[in-house]
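Protocol step 4 of 5: obtain the predicted structure for the target chain.
Materials: sequence only (see below). No template structures provided, no constraints applied. The aim of this step is simply to have a reference model before the mutagenesis design in step 5. Sequence pasted as it appears in the construct record:
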Amino acid sequence: MDDQLKRLEAITNRLEAVAQKFSSPASSAVNGHPNVNNGTADELDHLPILRDYDTIINESVQPFLNSSKKIGGDLTAMADHVQRLFTAQQEFIKRAVQSKKPNDQQITEIIKPQSNEIEAISNYTNKNRKSPLFNHLSAISEGIPALGWILVSPTPGPHIKDMTEAAQFYSNRVLKEFKDKDPTHVEWVRLWTKILNDLHTYVRQHHTTGLAWASHGKRDVDSTNVATSVNKPASGGVPPPPPPPPPPPPPMQLDSALNALVDNSRNELMSSINALGQGATSHLKKVPDELKTHKNPQLRQSTEAPHEKKGPAQFVDGKPVVPPKPGKPASAPSPVKTQTAVNTSKPTTVSGPPKLVLEGNKWLVEYQKDKHDLRITDTNMKHSIYIYKCVNSTVVVEGKVNSIVLDQCTKVGLQFTSVVSLVEFINCKSMKAQVIDRVPTLQIEKTDGCHIYLSTSSLDTEFITSKSSEMSVNIPFGDGEYKEFPIAEQFKTCLQNAFRYYLFPLKVSKNILCNQKYFSRFLSSKACTIIWSIPKTQISSSATPSFRCQLSSEDDPNNDFTQHVLARHVPSETQCREYKSTISVQECQRCYLSTNKSYHDESNGNTLKACTSFSFDRTYYESTLVEEWSMVCDRVSWKSLSQMIFFFGYMIGSLVFGVLSDKFGRRPIMGISFFIISFASFLCAFAPQDGLGFELSYSLFILGRFLLACASRGVALTGFVIGVEIVGPRQRLLTGIIIQYFFAIGELILLVFAYFFRSWYLLHTTLAILSLPFLIVYFLLPESPRWMISKGHYERGEKVLRHIAKINQTSFDSIAYQRLITEEKKREAIIDEKRHGFMILFRSKTMFIITLNISFQWFVQNLVFYGVSQNTGTWLSNPYISFGAGAIVEILAYFSVHLLLRLWGRKTIYCAFATGFAVFAILVVPVQVLMIKGSPGQNGLMFAIHVILKFFATGSYAIIYIYANELFPTQVRNTGMGICSMIARVGAIAGTLSNDLLARVWLYFPIVVFGVTSIIAVSFVTICPETLNKSLPQTVDDVELMGLALPWGRPKRLTRVQVDDENNTDENIALKLPTGGDNA
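Step 4 output (structure tokens):
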């Protein structure tokens, strides 16, 4: 032992002699960094910490810049920013290795050029969002913050890794777009990824715990201040002495000689230390428990010297200093060397060799990466499976095992048959698991993203979760379909009755927008009571009472002589068929007089004369617009034109207000619509004036009707959409159908006003005045939170939701709302802004089919509804009773739809109502034939058929509103509804005119057309997806996920895995679970 110690001392002395011989104060270095005052430029350039960074710039950055300029476009300017940023950081690192670390304020000033460049890169990307190279710019913008590692401590390496993963998202999109088109872009992605990876390696090697500053030298301050402080003598003192002369030049081959000598001495030293350690410890034995002083206090007391005073031990560098033995002088402890600049030790590796082995009764699956064929088949009930640190892999476990544990795994898919005890996820991310048979318990702990697919035999599985997020369980139903249910992430504990605490799960982020009690849907529906009543005034104010030709100004309908004279001048059926064969006999006798009949001449005349004035029946109406402008006979087209202009206003309003509400919001469009309705109502009331003449009065009137129709569509559609968007799936049906209730209630209210105000002028004026109070609805109605979030107005959306939560007397879940915002931002990153707009409804195949299909359904239902409703007043002799009966039938239809839609969904009930209408519409033909043959009870039977037709037409008309609103995504929902409503107005015009035009060809032609189109509509709607209890789609991708129910094969739908795959490339693909068992 003594010989070895002497040998070590000799080696140490030799090393110290070599160091003193070849070193000088001028060339001393600390921690590998030269002294700031005397280091030369060559010495700086040869430092590994600077040399390796230069290598990154020359071998990684420069090729990337060349590739960017080769692609050209917006990348040229971006490449200049990147070049300036790396150059500035290179100079900063040179400055750091020569200086002590300054304070935070000085560091902020020093790195200002770098921060300015990073900010410029971000701003440049945002300004060029419509650029065809936007994905390239975003990849740089997301990854360039990695150069901020100089301010991250003590772990700058993970910071660079996070930025690399953020840039990988857009890099994958570039690969996906140009992988098969242009290899230049693929090479560009490789070079950018190489820069970030090389930077990460460099930081891990030279700046493990943060930027390495020099431990010696001056602080990095402004150079002018340093010069001033050095040259200027102190006040009142003598000048400083001159500096010492420069040292002599070092001998040639200094570095090589020194390195060779040091290497030889180091090897001898380590060999001696190893030999010394083996010799010193070879004879040692294990200390038994009875001799351990920490387990036997009496041993410590017996070994302590009586005169020794106990006290705290001294520590140097975290280790206690052993006190000297008695009788020996205490030597001063040697100074402790600390390393403050660079830690060159590498961190412990987290990866290892891939492993899939059975050790005893435990299967070990470790460090597997990008392996989707991992399969464990030889299992039994005693085996447990431990999956550790696997990435982007799929593991299939066949047979029944005891337990499965997944620890620190990322993007791993697990499929297993059966487990005896539990399956546990710990510290995992983006996991998917599929159960083939049974599992009693699933435990999820500290895991972000876990989606479980259960089988029909494992529905009783218990879930235990803690400190986890984004969890869901998928339940099988139907033919290979799954219904997703979220697992609560937050809970609320309440003390009730002062005895027990109760735990309640809080709503997850998907339901943050769902509000069950809010009053906005009531206000929207209440507004529709008056708004939807005003357009119906046309039925009363423009009604056509019974009329005949007026013989003179003194014509008295109750005078017997007048009736005798009129009878002699009414054309006979023979005259009407001979001279007016294009019109019916009834219309000929009401609109024409025989010119050659006198009071004493009984011979038949041969000419007919059109009436110039008419006498109207005042049994039910005091005055109507038809009477005011004599819009009968040859002038009946003026009435038809007024109705066509009204429906044309419906068409324009549906499209214009639908697009505007999607762009500017639901609330402002409703406010504008309320104002236009009030203005147009007064214009319709006061436009017909004798002093203005017929042409001007009629033009102002139809202008008012046009504006009224436009604005009523703005209120109806926008109010319907905002009501549906503000509630959850369970309340959407009530919110959608309640507007239809108020539509029928509005008809009853209109009936009451029309009964008491039988003059068109009084009726219009009264309803115009009643429209004024609804202007305040704008100030009570909130903006749709769903629309604000889809447009990025997150603060406004939060404000509205907090107000709703206050009214509902519930707490606002701010964490869930922030998570919702994060998901929405990710969703928006996938969707280009150029896709937002009108044409987005026609770019996707599925969205295109749904848009055309639903538009056709709207056309048919408006054709049927308005065609049937036009004859409502002719059911009975009294128009008020007929109109009231029609309104009551509508309420019954809406109530039936409300009950049935909760049970069987939208599509099934819609098909049932449309088919029922078609069947009874076709039955009208034989019933009408029986009426002609004089069959008894025809009037009652026809009344019953008309009621049934009105019932089915109203039901299908109400369902298509709800169904269409749930199929269009939020980003273009109002636009889609507006397009459908615009096309529906064509159907409404066709339905209104068909009773006049088609009936002239064949009396039963209109009702047959209505029945046939209903059958065609039913056959088309069957391919649309069902929306019962499903969340409203936010984007077109959500509609694609719903898919189409094609009749020639299985339902076409995208699984969640497939949707993820579309947004990933081969380099960053989502996990795919193998199919089998109960899953399709």
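Step 4 remarks: The first strand starts at residue 29 and ends at 30. The first helix runs from residue 2 to 22.
Proceed to step 5.
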